[in-house]
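A reminder before we start the practical. When you read a complex entry, don't treat the lines as separate problems. The point of joint prediction is that each chain is placed relative to the others, so the output describes one connected object in space. Small molecules and nucleic acid strands, if listed, are placed in the same frame. In the example below there are two entries. Take a minute to note the order of the lines before looking further.
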Amino acid sequence: MADRHLEQLLSILKSSGADAWEVTDTNELGWEFYFIRHRLDQHRTKAVDSFSVKVYKNLEEGKFLGSASAQIAPDASEEEMRRTVEGLCRDASYVRNPFYTLNKPAEAETAETARMDMEAVCGDFLRTMRSLPETETEDLNSYEIFVSEIRRRFLNSEGIDVTDVYPSSMVEAVINARKDGHEIELYRLFHSGTCGRETLTRELAEALAYGRDRLAASPTPALEKADVVFSTDPAKELYLYFIDRLHTSMVYRGMSDWKTGDTVAPDNLTVRAVKTLPNSSGNTAWDAEGAPIRDLTLIDCGKAVSFWGGRQFSQYLGLESSFEANNFAVSGGTESAEDLRAGDFLEVVEFSDFQADPITGDIAGEIRLAYLHQGGSVTPVSGGSVSGNIRELLDGFRFSKETRQYDSLLIPAVTRLQGVTVTGAGNE
Amino acid sequence: MKAPFSSYLSGIAPGLKGLISLLRQRYDYVSVLSIDTVGFQVAISQRAKSVTRNTLCTERGTVVRVYRGGLYAESAFTGFDPAEVEKTCSAICAELDKQLSLLRDCGTEPYETGVLPDEPLEIFAEMETGRMPEDEDISALVDRLTAISDRGMAQGKEQGLNLIDFNVRASSTHVSKLFLTEHRDLRQSYVYSESMAAALVAGEDRTDFAYTSGSERFGPELFDTMEDRIPEVLRIAKDLVSAERVVPGEYEIITSPEVTGLIAHEAFGHGVEMDMFVKGRALGAEYIDKRVGSDLVTMHEGALCAEDTSSYAFDDEGTPAGDVTEIDRGILRTGICDALSAIRLGVKPTGNGKRQSFSHKVYTRMTNTIFDSGDSTLEEMIASVKKGYLLEGMQSGMEDPKHWGIQCILDRGYEIIDGKLTGRVVSPLVMTGYVPDLLGSVSMLSGDRKTDGAGYCGKGHKEWVKTAQGGPYLKAKARLG
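Here is the predicted structure of the whole assembly.
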């Protein structure tokens, strides 16, 4: 938003009768490229400003704090802005939440704010995608490249005025493999800051190899209970379960019954919120409410030690300096990936859509490609499903000391769960 | 009343037409889509309340599509100034030229595509609604939803449930869209509303979330009857806390309308999105005029075949809304198609070109995807089951158009043995299978049908748009785990 519009809005807010306010001015500049095979389907640019405002009203002499929010278009007239703010002040007076205070100015080491070289980053992506190890039988069906530079300025009535500028990129790739007239596909959605050429190449080369194996896959047999190994992107869901259940909104709203000091995870598992990870799309200095982001241990050797989250619910839980974290690192594994792949097990590398429910702990997903290790032989299998509950699987939850990064999550490279239900594909 | 078209869009329309004229000097085809969508969401629980004038679809912005030399390009932006048309035109051209220069440096070849037709067409559609979200009395709505949450908690306790919270959410969205080309002027305005009521309930060793949702292509009057949902939410909560795990295997199933809709959506919704045909990503392309289900299976898709959250007058490429019979008595007849894919495939577009927002690309997307009804009653269907489950409540689904696998994660299964419900409940359930096997096993359909458009649909794992789906109760066979 133009500075003139921002000044107009701030002036309106200050005279509106709001007891407090927050404004976020986000500007996204993006380039996008869409390919069918390696031919250009279309190209796109975007320059999108979004401008959000939240007003607060003290109710019943400070016993309650009401709030209401809205987006204001960057070309809104002064009159339109005034009408919106007046409406928000009215709306806020109907919302009786327990009182809390907004963040106050704090010091933080700010992230790099140099403008991204859009053409250079896009060039890296375009050239990387053309240089993958495709063959006559395993190749890219189609792919989409999204590169953005995001500038986010946050201001509030307590005097915070902070700005983050950060890159955010995404590649969607569909991989084909074919043999004897039969063709299969695999799907990848890869997030990062800018183009991590080596990581992107490694991930997509791995998927091309999985495509070859899926062609040879047999129907998954009904194993009833089995050890299941997770070593690809769906493994994130297992660790997000622990992270989500420590979020202050989940705890305050009763969706998580975890308390600090509780044993909530395997006894060697440690989870930290971390300010930065290499080339993560979440490397910002400030959260969306102007709180400085820092490193914070959430789970230490299986015990919950800290919650994390936004201002309102954190303060309700008695936390004065919490924040919305973007990056997380999981560590503590003592076994090697090789040790975790010993004996009989099913290593699922491709799901249709693997999910872990943070409220119930239920996990489920249809198998698109797995490797069945039985009696020393390895068979690629497909179909059927994996299901269970993380709470019930904690005793047999093992994870490697080697790690693997998926954008804003650094997690063990290999995770093995004992006693997971495996439904067969139905053709055995 | 009629939902009035955005005065903002009416105000910038002459400027946008000027922009099209300027861009046409350089490009062989130019279209503009401008969107001005407003709304609200109120969420109430015992522990937290919120009011926002945002829904997931509120936005204001413009996207320009241009064509030259066999290649399409787009520029999306906010803050259009009718007094700065030349400057806007120059900025669009300069940025797209920079991209082309980079693409040439990288040796990129275009996927050559013909030019879109631009026959003259005018549409001005202000659709009926009871009330407008902009006029809703938020204070009264907060009071009403608070009372529902309080009563839900009280009635839950009376029934012996250990309720942690009772959540209620109401949102209403007023969409205005303006689509212009050199020869087309299309304007539409409509309102849709969505509601959710849910109980967070603690069982002996787990916590569950029992929810119901509702949607209509009308205004906030949808919320006037939300209190009626309390008994159903509490019934679901009671069922979930007593639920057991299913023994994995193949069963006879009866799907409730929302589960029937999920099957429609995941089985032959995504499977016949014809942009997937262009990429060779859908098995459906090889099965046109072939059998994919039993004689009882007929399925429709289109913005005109129901009134729900995705029922519009024209799509995001300016194609009038349609109603396509995808499956006719078990035979796959056709798919759904956006305008660019239609040119590439040599077929007519069906009015299914949709964007997540003005700043996102168009893909072929679903609108209302619905199985036709049959002539059985639910009682007859239950009586016909030897051993199986009545399935209710959807959590999520995932398509696999290339191989016709299907994954549906469902909330509850009610056991049926020898034609009778036993009272035993299983949860959660993963329903998997091969789509033609599943649809081929359809043996009974109930005479009624419902749609639900409260959720969002992704393409792959992104591009979230409003869709609705539904149908009657349906009897089939499937694997549950």
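Discuss with your neighbour: Chain B touches chain A through 82 residues (CB under 8 Å). What might explain this?
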